[in-house]
Write a structure and sequence with these properties.
about 550 residues, alpha/beta, 7-stranded mixed β-sheet, 6-stranded mixed β-sheet, 19 helices, disordered N terminus, transferase, xylose metabolism, ATPase_NBD, kinase activity, carbohydrate metabolism
Amino acid sequence: MTHETVTRSRPDAATLISEGHAHLGIELGSTRIKAALVDEGGELLATGSFAWENQLVDDSWTYPMEAVWEGLAACFSDLAETVRSEYDVALARLGSLGISAMMHGYIALDEKGELLTPFRTWRNTYTGDAASMLSEAFGQNIPLRWSVSHLLHAVLGREEHVDQVAAITTLAGHVHRALTGRAVLGVGDASGMFPIASGTDGVDYDRELLSTFANLDAVADVPWDLADLLPEVLVAGQDAGTLSEEGAKLLDPSGTLEAGAITAPPEGDAGTGMVATQAITPRTGNVSAGTSAFAMVVLEGGLSTPREEIDMVTTPSGDPVAMIHTNNCTGDLDQWLGVFSRFAQLLGKDVDTEELYATLFAAGADGAADAGGVLSFNYLSGEHQTGVASGRPLLVRTQQADFTLENLMRAQLHGAFGALAVGMEVLLEEEKVGLDVMYAHGGIFRTQGVAQQVLADALRTPVALGESAGEGGAWGMALLAAHTARRAQGGDDSSPTDALAGFLADEVFASQEVRTLEPTTEGAKGYAEWLRSYRDALPVERLAGESID
């Protein structure tokens, strides 16, 4: 959905915004910080964005914290300018606000709330020893990127900052604290810091596992208790504080934005993806595709055994979810498209980005179902799902390959979901998890029917795409903010799950058009053949990481 497709009349929207009844969601993604402004029913009113990139500093993927604050302000400024241009009003008041960001990673703070070490993102895969130690001690899979893995990695490495740690959080939690003063986290994001357990008092960190952590020999000498470092856990709809004067100035240095807006619990991009696709009930799932990709499947029950390919997290309302996460998705594909864009420029053709993507994706749709013997490894970084420690983007083809533009693009689309398909085979084929439909969102799905069909064939599962799928997590976070404002008005005593599900079903998605594609026999067979070759060639990808600096 774009500004041009908004159906609300401009006077109504202008009044809504000027009276402070619009709801704002901001998501700090891997390549963009994006803002979405919506009305009470989730209808998109305006968007803003700011492009940024991670950096590899001292062998660690990071974003400088200065870039976080500069990017937030630039994103909000872009949104405010759109509002001014579209509706001729200033964005001075908000009905509610919510912050989301890429999940997991490591932000360690001292007693003054100052950063002790540069932000370590989910992309870092050097926490293997710590994650293995925790997985064995806890009796469940603890991923490399989880905050507790990063914390224990720092302890094992005897890093100087460890004794000074007074709090740890995620990027969303850190930004939320700066905007409101509250050290809280939505349960979906919190479940990527430390395992969550449900009880009679609701959902919170697993107290037994916190005790297990405290009894590890490795942390015997640290001067803190992990339970004291973690942010408070909240569920969707709970009041997470209000935007402070200082927070308003962080978002809008011009001073136009007023303080006082109620805020939603800060969430991770996995949780906002579930909300943006209405995939929050059992036997539904969603795929979020960006620089990284993850599939979330809401479970009917537990898994047969802990699986290293599967992370156990939760929905924003606290229900159990199996998560298949990959470090790589569209990054290499975007770079290939950049090469084609430059080629067009050399020919004197300045091709619009949307047109370029649509044209090349359409070519990929015309490629052979098995990509004609062309393989693409899109590994800009390591990939835990396939056991690749250090990624190197790699294009490989057999001697008999039919190397055409169509098959090259088909291989790129196959490769974007390659590692995800490997992990999903474990969940669907080995664990026999029930899944009726997979909802998709992310920019790769903007070209209608192409990546959506590839994903349906890869997973052998119907894939649905809603009107707002391309808006992704910022829109999902805006919906959570609107839901929080709605709950704050009272009158709804239903459970967190029922309240969120009801809001999405009745207020947001009732009028949304959803397009569903079934897997095709030819496409599913072709992808399966391609995936077998992909698995067989993984030793080549691993060798590339070992041999090429």
